[in-house]
């Protein structure tokens, strides 16, 4: 199925990393959809003339590796689980094909807006150096003692709308690990539409709706945490886990 996805994606016009700067959308509204890889192929076939696809060194299916940080008592995870509207995620993310690595801070406010701040780093570091601690403190306005909590790896296709301020990320082949614990999700696809404000006229949103697929909020980080840390509280995510298991069955 991965080969079928590649074939469909190869029909799209390319866009380079430098051309993507105009649609970085560091402040945005994110809308997620959770689907099976077969549904992804059907959706992509309907929008091939509406989007361009990010291509780096000839690759359109790009590999991302992330290391998330949290406190000893997993504050960021529990903030999300407990429904706190103002919440934070801190991670290091490496774009494998371009060999570029960033420390990234994602903050969501009570209005559903996401702000991402980041600073380029040389590579993953499991112990945060002082300059990165200072950067995190400056964005979170509080001092937080953070440690590595979970590794995440996935393949991503990034699409850019030809006619509107919209980006689209398509994540598949998700893997989570920490120490000796691992979890892989085959067939699961997370589609995330990034816009200045949610626009239902988006070609991909319309295509998904025609197939009866509605927005579905889901955090890769939180889903990974429930698998890697089996003793963690996850009542809020039980329905999401059931839905994912049905899709991937």
Automatic annotation (TrEMBL):
**Upper lineage ranks?**
Bacteria, Pseudomonadati, Bacteroidota, Flavobacteriia, Flavobacteriales
- Designated name of the protein: Polyphosphate polymerase domain-containing protein
Q: Which residues form the VTC domain?
A: 27-227
CDD domains for this protein: PolyPPase_VTC_like (cd07750)
This protein's species is Lutibacter holmesii
Domain of life, source organism: Bacteria
- Which Pfam family name is an example for this entry? VTC
């Amino acid at each position: 199925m991965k080969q079928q996805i590649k074939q469909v994606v190869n029909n799209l016009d390319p866009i380079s990393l430098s051309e993507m700067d105009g649609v970085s959308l560091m402040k945005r509204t994110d809308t997620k959809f959770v689907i099976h890889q077969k549904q992804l192929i059907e959706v992509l076939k309907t929008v091939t003339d509406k989007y361009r696809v990010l291509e780096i060194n000839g690759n359109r299916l790009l590999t991302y590796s992330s290391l998330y940080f949290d406190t000893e008592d997993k504050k960021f995870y529990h903030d999300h689980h407990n429904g706190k509207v103002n919440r934070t995620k801190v991670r290091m993310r490496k774009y494998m094909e371009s060999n570029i690595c960033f420390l990234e801070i994602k903050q969501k406010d009570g209005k559903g807006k996401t702000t991402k701040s980041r600073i380029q780093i040389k590579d993953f570091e499991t112990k945060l150096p002082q300059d990165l601690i200072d950067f995190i403190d400056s964005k979170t306005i509080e001092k937080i003692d953070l440690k590595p909590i979970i590794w995440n790896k996935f393949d991503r296709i990034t699409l850019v709308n030809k006619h509107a301020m919209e980006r689209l990320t398509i994540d598949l082949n998700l893997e989570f690990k920490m120490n000796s614990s691992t979890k892989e999700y085959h067939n699961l696809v997370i589609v995330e539409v990034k816009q200045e404000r949610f626009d239902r006229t988006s070609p991909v949103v319309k295509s998904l709706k025609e197939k009866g697929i509605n927005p579905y909020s889901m955090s890769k980080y939180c889903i990974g945490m429930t698998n890697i840390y089996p003793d963690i509280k996850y009542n809020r995510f039980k329905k999401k886990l059931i839905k994912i298991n049905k899709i991937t069955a």
